[in-house]
Amino acid sequence: MGLIWFLLIGLxxxxxxxxxxxxxxFGLLGNIIVGIIGAVLGGFLFRIIGLQETSLLGSLATATVxxxxxxxxxxxxxxxx
Length: 81
Prior knowledge:
Largest sheet: none
Keywords: Cell membrane, Membrane, Transmembrane, Transmembrane helix
Number of domains: 1
Protein name: GlsB/YeaQ/YmgE family stress response membrane protein
Helix content: over 70%
InterPro entries: Transgly_assoc
Order of helices and strands: HHH
Radius of gyration: 12 Å
Family: Belongs to the UPF0410 family.
Mean pLDDT: 86
Shape: globular
Distance between the termini: 37 Å
Subcellular location: Cell membrane
């Protein structure tokens, strides 16, 4: 069941990040991948500043922030800022 929640949070985080970054979503599978990578990146960034998620909503927020940062970096690298 944990894997299903992880994938659902990844999907939702990728979707939200795509909306926040003005339509830079990548479809269903792409959003899951962006959300999962964003969750790892967000967790790393939050640990650096001393924050830690403690709930499902915190996990979603962490993953979404990480996914937004990831999409921002992808935009810079691809030149589509």
